[in-house]
Amino acid sequence: MIEVYHGSYLEIRKPDIAFSRQTLDFGKGFYVTPLREQAVRWALRWQRRGKTAIVNTYSFDDSSGALAGLRVKDFPEYDSSWLHFIMANRNGQTPDSYDIIRGGVANDKVFNTLELFFDGLISEEEALGRLKFEKPNHQICIRRQDLMDRLLTFQSSEEVSDGSQ
């Protein structure tokens, strides 16, 4: 079991895949991170839009027994495979072949490089050259409702603030 977090504008005791968007980094699913500060940054985006910033905490059963038989894809670094996977998902061409996907987040700095690549303004080699200087954040996308129900257990939620409001 590991502790994972989800930044939002509300408490989410029971995640529901129906509320997920299709064209995110790893496609439709519920996104969590083991990095609390990353979830806080995502929650604070809601605060800047005038909503409450909430960090939800869950325990996630990532044991080999719990994940046995599941189709899990890991992206340990920003590489060509990750780049093309993100591009396909953002273009709505999400491959449905994975149950759980783990890897780097296309945060604001990374997203700028991705946009230049997607728009054909820089080559794949240049994009990867820029990304090698970025420390990957980490996200876990759970792509099936039955897995969310089985592997995630709500622990708590907490309102966070950057102090400006």
Helix content, binned percent: 25-40%
Please state the average pLDDT score: 88
| Helical segment count | 6
Low-pLDDT segments, ≥5 res: none
What is the 3D form? globular
Distance between the termini: 35 Å
Radius of gyration: 16 Å
* Structural class category: alpha+beta
Describe the strand arrangement of the main beta sheet, using strand numbers: 2-6-5-4
Strand tally is 7
Q: How do the helices and strands follow one another from N- to C-terminus?
A: EEHEHEHEHHEHE
The fraction of residues assigned to DSSP E strands is 15-25%
Reported for the largest beta sheet, the result is:
4 strands, mixed
Task: Outline the structure in words.
The chain is 33% helix and 24% strand. The protein is globular. It has helices at residues 36-48, 64-67, 80-90, 108-118, 124-131, 145-151; strands at 2-8, 30-32, 53-60, 72-75, 100-103, 139-142, 152-160. Helix 4 (108-118) runs antiparallel to helix 5.
Question: Any key phrases for this structure?
Answer:
three-stranded antiparallel beta sheet, single chain, 33% helix, globular, four-stranded mixed beta sheet, 165 residues, alpha+beta
